[in-house]
Amino acid sequence: MNLTPSFVVIGSGLILGSTIDEIVNLGGKIKAIYVDNIKDEKRHEGPFNVKNSNHINLDLKYFLKIVDKNTWLVSADNKKIISKEVLNVFNDKAINYHPGILPTYAGLYCYQWAVNNNEKEFGSTIHFMTPKVDGGKIILEERFDITNSDTGLSVYQKCLKAGIKAMRKTLFLICKKKDIPKKNQSFYLSRIYKKANPYNKEIDWSKPAIEIESSIRASNFHPFKPPAFQTCIKGIPIIKAVRNLKSSDMPPGSVIEHNKDSILVVSGDHIILEIKTTNDLINKLKIFLKKSI
Fold first, then answer.
1. Nearest to 132 by CA among 69, 82, 64, 98
2. pTM above 0.90, yes or no
3. Under DSSP, is residue 85 helix (H, G, I), strand (E, B) or coil?
4. DSSP 8-state symbol, 28
């Protein structure tokens, strides 16, 4: 009987590619790969059976044919919710990469919300999949620091690096038949994040400078569009804020001055913030500036 672990993998991008490479390096067999974009399809087709990820919950009969007791389902940067029926076929052998610390950061785009919340530490988690999204037992975490210069984009990139490392460790445990940790989550600590509604998040100048700055850093994915929310002034995206060493007795939201590439605005704790946006938008922003925003 062949006891070599085999895998069905669903995902995208760097995490998917690294997962495939690691399975091959460890001597595992890949039975199918589910992808959601043309780039990944072209990258992995040929040596592997590549399928559209939209079909994963429709392929129950296919799984009943190919899955045995040594087959694992690996979700490697996948946003599709996998049905209970499909998970049952894999019999508690389904794992997921989550870019966040569970259970306090479940759901979507947690890396952006972590910067918004001024977290100093974050990380990626590998956990077992259950019908409850992001609710399965934790296998391991890979943590990292968030600095005052980090943005939503840089923390997303740190999550990818941590996730690759965590997934490699997990696949090693599977392929080498090692004991796999199974840590229960404390669901009373759980918070589920998602895309903000409304998506554009207008700056509340009554807030302290550090909260405003964190919100702006969180939505800085320049030159890309942030996934969860966009911090704005009058609907104009803001990409950077720097806390000035000076303070002002003027009311929050007062514009102290503006120049060719930034404006100085008073925050709720009277610290002056230097607000920056892209060059093509700064002139548009000045149209709205009078005595206050």
1. 82
2. yes
3. helix
4. -
The rounded distance, in Å, linking the Cα atoms of 42 and 155 is 28
Residue with tokens 């404390």: 186
The amino acid sitting at 136 is G
Domains for the chain: give ranges and CATH numbers: 6-192 (3.40.50.170), 200-286 (3.10.25.10)
What lies within 8 Å, CB to CB, of 266 at 6+ separation is 205, 248, 250, 251, 252, 253, 254, 256, 272, 273
DSSP class of residue 70 equals T
CB 238 within 8 A of CB 272: no
Q: How far is CA 89 from CA 6, 60, 130, in A?
A: 14, 8, 12
Which residue in this structure is represented by tokens 């919340």?
117
pLDDT 10s digits, 276-287 = 877 666 666 666
End-to-end, the C-alpha distance of the chain in Å comes to 72
Distance (Å, whole) CA 261 – CA 279: 6
Q: Label residue 208 exposed, middle or buried (CB < 10 Å: 0-12, 13-18, 19+).
A: middle
- Tens-digit pLDDT profile for residues 170-182: 999 999 999 999 9
Q: What is the DSSP letter of 268?
A: T
What is the spatial distance between Cα 169 and Cα 142, in angstroms, rounded to a whole number?
10
**Which H or E run includes 63?**
helix 60-66
Provide the 3-class DSSP secondary structure of residue 144. Answer: strand
Q: Which amino acid makes up residue 181? A: P
The tokens describing 47, both together, are 């040596």
- CA–CA separation, 84 vs 180, rounded Å? 22
